[in-house]
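Hi support team,

I submitted a single chain yesterday and got back a structure, but I'm not sure I'm reading the token output correctly. Could someone confirm the output below corresponds to the sequence I sent? I've pasted both exactly as they appear in my results page.

Thanks,
R.
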Amino acid sequence: MQNDLHHFGSELQRVFATSLRSIEIKNNEITVTVEDKELIQVLEQLKSAEKFKFDQLIDLAGVDYLEFGTDEWNTETATSSGFSRGVEKASFGRFTFDDAKQNTNIDGPRYAVVYHLLSIANNQRLRVKVYCEDDHLPILPSVTPIWNCADWYEREAFDLFGIVFEGHPDLRRILTDYGFTGHPFRKDFPLIGHVEVRYDPDQKRVIYQPVSIEPRINVPKVIREDHRFEDGVAEHVDETSAEESTDV
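Hi R., thanks for writing in. Yes, this is the structure output for that exact sequence:
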């Protein structure tokens, strides 16, 4: 499989050399990062070229790198002091809008969009990533002319991350309310939100009011390596032990 991936990666590098920022093979998966101005051209060729034939867009996902690498609970050095290990809030979502504005400086663009492609003919998957150059107004061209199913995917990324897709036929919110303020999957969006809703018996209607609950930490943000994806590590079963256990 690794040889096939490396061969496929070399072919991508040869065809799209000037359009790629990077190409990475990790965990038996291949990811290419594309220049935003070359996105449509690259995706169109990935779909139509006989050697690629990525005729299915499996998913489209927004990404916010604002807190990338931020850890609220260092599990490798933590003691047994219990919940106090996660009390110090470090992630932006745990602050309210009344708190002092946090430092949002990060290296490189803040927002990205990831396209997950599938070629049934070639039995091949590919992840294509593109960064939005403007952090204040992230914009990318819509890929709905290439894959119709991108319609709702792009509306979801717009609703939750505030990423604008130029050329989309009907770019509006899809999950939140029409009067919703902000984009809830952005890392600087408070976990408690902006407002709360309740039914007012006097006005006989649903009203919006400032959120009344206090922000609290239920589960601190933890970054830990997953042993299943470490190089050279493979799960196996001791057949001798298994046979002995079945004989008991």
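A quick pointer for reading it: Residues 159 and 175 are 7 Å apart (CA to CA). Let us know if anything else looks off.

Best,
Support desk
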